[in-house]
Amino acid sequence: MFGLLKGFGVTVSQIPKKKVTLQYPDVKPNWPDRFRGVHKFNPNLCIVCNQCARICPTSCISLSGSRGEDKKLHIETYDINFEICILCDLCTEVCPTEAIQMTDTFELAEYNRDALYKNMEWLVENGKQHAQRKGLIGEASVHDANDTDEVAGKAGEK
């Protein structure tokens, strides 16, 4: 009987406190600034240095590029296998141009494992969605987004 009253006392003491349960997915949580979600990629910034793929502890990143007429390397493919990615953030820390960055997106539920293999177009689109959620899309950002579409389209043509 004493245990029942003790438990009831604990329950009553929690009533005036602030609720911590959110009605997810209707109410999205506020993530800390250092939260690491799924990557976003800007192909215009990538110099195909391959450092992200080399430092990845699970070898989930693969990329390829070719030398253009201006003798600079241009990215052709950039793929991440999220089936084995551990979101360690090493690829973003080593990137000299910040072409690859982490977002607050974490929902990657799929019906099969092959769908977790994401290509450059998906990563670019994820970056656009992240910018829209954060309210970062401005006129300059839209221009950048159009450039990334052109680059992604060229990569898809090859």
Automatic annotation (TrEMBL):
Classification via InterPro entries = 4Fe4S_Fe-S-bd (IPR017896), 4Fe4S_Fe_S_CS (IPR017900), NADH_quinone_OxRdtase_chainI (IPR010226)
The record's SUPFAM superfamilies line, in alphabetical order, gives: 4Fe-4S ferredoxins
Give GO terms: molecular function aspect only: 4 iron, 4 sulfur cluster binding; metal ion binding; NADH dehydrogenase activity
> Which keywords does the record carry?
4Fe-4S, Iron, Iron-sulfur, Metal-binding, Translocase
Query: A cellular component term (GO) from this record?
Result: membrane
Q: Its family? A: Belongs to the complex I 23 kDa subunit family.
Q: This chain belongs to which protein, by name? A: NADH-quinone oxidoreductase subunit I
Q: Which organism is it from?
A: Collibacillus ludicampi
